Amino acid sequence: MKNNKILILGAGLVSKPGVTYLLENKNLKVTVASRTVSKAEALVKGFDNGIARQVDVENAEELEKLVKENDIMISLLPWVHHLKVADLCIKNNKHMATTSYVSEGMRKLDADAKSKGLLFLNEMGVDPGIDHMSAMKIIDEVYHEGGKVIHFYSYCGGLPAPKDNDNPYGYKFSWSPKGVVLASRNSARFLENGKVVEIEGKNLFLNKRIEEVEGLGSLEVYPNRDSIPYKELYGLKDAETVMRGTYRYIGWCDTLKKIVDLGLVDDTPLPNLKGKTYKQMMADLVGAVEKDDVMAKAAQKVGLTKDSEVMGRLEWLGLFSDEKIPDFDNRLDILGQRMQDKLYYKDGEVDMLLLRHKFVVENKDGSRDFITSTMIDYGIPHGDSSMARTVSLPLAIGVNMMAEGKINLTGVQIPTIKEIYEPVLHELARLNIKMVEKRVPLK
User: Fold this and answer.
1) 347 is catalytic
2) Can you give the pTM of this predicted structure?
């Protein structure tokens, strides 16, 4: 096996299932490198073909030494470090894989990677990743049969499993709270019934929809960033609708909208926060004086009554309490920390990953069908989370195929090509991560 030395940079929350999958292939030598070496050691424990190394990614010399020693680099680092790794891969003729969206900087490396015969495989997680692969499988089948995709919706969400959905937010964090909260500032753009719809970030949560999912009941969906490029990316030349969205339990959108309106997602440094309580921070925010009822004043500011469900959620979070705020200089970090402290998975609780595509297709004979493709995947009690499995296993499967020379592509790629998505989806199904497809005629 030519490319059998694999370097995994990062040993965070989602890495374990993918690392284990690669270590189980005894033909591979797998090095896990992390700033905290004990995390890497825990991941390779019990495997003769696993090595743990300490690495500081800010140390270019140290990083390059590791890159030189291996054949395929997996970056599970925060996305801001991917280009640093990619540049070293170009310089040292090494392949690379990530679960992250292709950035502009990564896209610019396509020609260099191709000229050196290198594959940089990106977007190999769940969203992006399994969403691309499962959508393209159906799109390719429809066009192969002589049909057309007229409407395409794709929604995904990582949520607590229904049995462990026991807090007023209907949410628990399996990744950075700051990232989840910051997503509330993103604008959105999609195509629906032939019209481009644009939504400003401040209005994102006013544009929620209610979706019924069999076995789960009603959920909220709100649009996810810019869906328009997917018309070209997925070859949806006839599509009048292309929309991607995010699933949440009922109540999330109304609550996050008011959190945004109150100014709690502002990361401007404020010198006067130190030593204050949550109640004092909120009083400053809504212009309350000492004798005022701070919660009532906050409710008034965002057009709610004090006894509304949304205000109840803010109170449950402790935003009107006399507890001291953590030592941050901005409200976004204070909110993120508070959410992490309150919205967490307790021991033995499990998460759920819900991914669903909906298609209206026109067949060769002019008739129309409605197709759904749905994955509902649960974490393992006291074991791997669904988020960890669905993010790291597609990546590991893709890297295993690269190592075995089964992907005959170079350059910066994502898994929208049959050569990649077909075997990866097949292997994921073997690991019990599967999409369920249903097709019914439309009258």
Assistant:
1) no
2) 0.93
